[in-house]
Amino acid sequence: MKGVIFNVLEEMVIKKCGMQVWNEILYTQNLDGIYTAGESYPDSELFALVTEISSQTKIPAEELVGSYGEFLFAQLAERYPLFLENKPDLRGFLKSVDSVIHIEVKKLYSNPSLPKFEYEDLPDGRLLMRYHSPRKLCILAEGLIRGASSTYHTPINIEHKICCHKGDPHCDLIIGFPDE
Ligand code: HEM
């Protein structure tokens, strides 16, 4: 994963738990904590950090990754405001992640580790986002989607029954828009 992902994780831990906790996490994991935004670092390093943060804060890893996704979205929206500018609503924004936003990310960074999303407008009005990634960061994706929902002031609910962590080949994130 790119250094920017680690930079934002550091920012969240320092903001919520303080610098001392972050330093202890790095020390326990024997990491120097120096991450350059555009450089790639092993996925295993991110997973080790999440496991360590979870054990130090007693927050279950899944909950932590979800909250991190929400925090990450706000940070990405601040760093790359252009990506949101042309998308007036949440549904349109979500549909642009695979074919516009992550394509722009590929221009910004060399060899980024990105998921693949396929979309379907379901007859009942919900939006299916089918997530494919060898990293299995579907809970991060859920958090990012919730972060987008707050930024767009549009309430949503997410159904996530088909999941790569249950042995399915992908995850189906089915997004409902109760206010539409
Ligand atoms: C709701 C909107 C979004 C969703 C659901 C989403 C989903 C994801 C997920 C799940 C990953 C982790 C990699 C993986 O699963 O394989 C990821 C990586 C990433 N995304 Fe997105 N994303 C969203 C919006 C954005 C936006 C607005 C940006 C703005 C630049 C962005 C930039 C990135 C970057 C830089 C990475 C890391 C690439 C790497 O580490 O190599 N994403 N995205």
Description:
The protein has helices spanning 3-17, 19-29, 43-57, 61-79, 82-85, 90-108, 138-151; strands spanning 116-121, 127-132, 157-159, 171-176. The mean pLDDT is 96. It is of the alpha+beta class and 180 residues long. Helix 1 (3-17) packs across helix 2, helix 2 packs across helix 3 and helix 4 packs across helix 7. The site of protoporphyrin IX containing FE has 24 residues, from helix 1, helix 6 and helix 7. Protoporphyrin IX containing FE binds at residues 1-2, 4-5, 76, 80, 83, 94, 97, 101-102, 105, 112-115, 133, 135, 137, 140-141, 144-145, 148.
SSE ordering: HHHHHHEEHEE
Which small-molecule ligands are present, each listed once?
A: protoporphyrin IX containing FE
Termini Cα gap: 36 Å
Q: Return Rg in Å.
A: 16 Å
Which homologous superfamily in CATH is the superfamily of the largest domain? H-NOX domain
Supply the helix-strand structural class. Answer: alpha+beta
Shape category: globular
Tally of helical runs: 7
State the CATH architecture of the largest domain.
Answer: Alpha-Beta Complex
Low-pLDDT parts are none
Strand order of the largest sheet: 1-2-4-3
Find the count of extended strands (DSSP E, 2+ residues). Answer: 4
Helix fraction bin: 40-55%
Mean pLDDT level: 96
Do you know the CATH topology of the largest domain? H-NOX domain
The percent range for strand residues is 5-15%
Largest sheet: 4 strands, antiparallel
Instruction: Compute the number of structural domains.
Output: 2
- What is the highest CATH level, the class of the largest domain? Alpha Beta
